[in-house]
Every structure is written in structure tokens, then in C-alpha cells.
Specification:
This is Nucleotidyltransferase family protein. The protein is about 40% helix and about 15% strand. By secondary structure, it is of the alpha/beta class. It has a five-stranded mixed sheet. It is globular, with a radius of gyration of 16 Å.
Amino acid sequence: MGGYEDQLRSILDQPQVWKDLRLVRKLGLPQACIAAGYVRNKVWDHLHGYLDATPLHDVDVIYYDLADTDEERDWQLDVRLEEHDPGRGWQVRNQARMHEFSGNAPYTSVEDAMSYWPETATAVGIRLNEQDQMEILCPYGLDDLFAMQVRQSPRYRNTVAYRQRVFEKEWLDNWPLLMMS
């Protein structure tokens, strides 16, 4: 995975990304990372040679805290991030309770929760460690992301929902080099 990890770090080496990572780290949330479309879109934009970023609907921040699974906490964190960096659509979600919405067994970590997401290329997150180095979480690796392969995650059981999601998000229109399996 080393080669793709280096490429990902290079693509994400942008002032806004570092600002976002530092802001999320300041929250002090266990296992916190920025994930999903935030990472995926930047890679696909880069691989398509786009100079302008594809607009994000939100910035997904995930963390794992069994000690406090109150949904109200997440909403408060959304507001807190919005106060520091408005207009970004911050969406903070504790993965320790997200299994309740999908009918899965309780997740054991952020990375375990990501392994249940619909697509392998979306199951990628980034965070800063104590040494200000970017860490990459990717339960399915980075091959599909960089191959522009849209593939259903093995642990995501609803194929109809997966396909509908891809088409509703218009990924194949936004990034015509994508291949769907």
C-alpha cells in the first residue's frame, strides 16, 4: 500500500486539508478522522485532471467513543466545527452507535465501521497523529480508489441501495473515467 499512500498524501497536501485535520484533532475525539467523499473526491478529481474541486455536500468526521453515544453530542460538534469554519457542512458521527441504523453488529472501531460502508473507494479516512503526520485508514486498501473502480464493499449487504446511491450521486457523470462493478 506504500505507493498509493504516498500518492494520497501528495494529493492531500493542501493548506485546507491540513487546516481541517488540525481542527478535527483539536476536538480530542477518540479515533477521529475525516473520511468518505472528502478523501475520495479529491483523489478522483486529481486523477481526472480537474483544476476545480468537485463540490462536497458535507465534510464527514467520524470517531469512536463507547463512553458517550448520545446523538446530541454529534450535533454539538457539528455546530462547534461550523463556528470555526462556516459553510462547510460539517457532519460528525460517533461510529460506536451507527450500527443501529444499518442493523449490523456493534462496530469495534472507526475502521471496522468503515468496512460496512457501501463502496470500497469511500472507506478511506485521514487524521493527524501527535507528530503532525497524516495517518490513513483504509480497511479495503487504496487500490479501488486509485483504479477509479466503484465496487460494493463486501460487508455492505444491500446491492440495490449501493447501485442507487452511485447513480443518485451522479459519480459516473462527474468522473467519466470511473468503472463500476
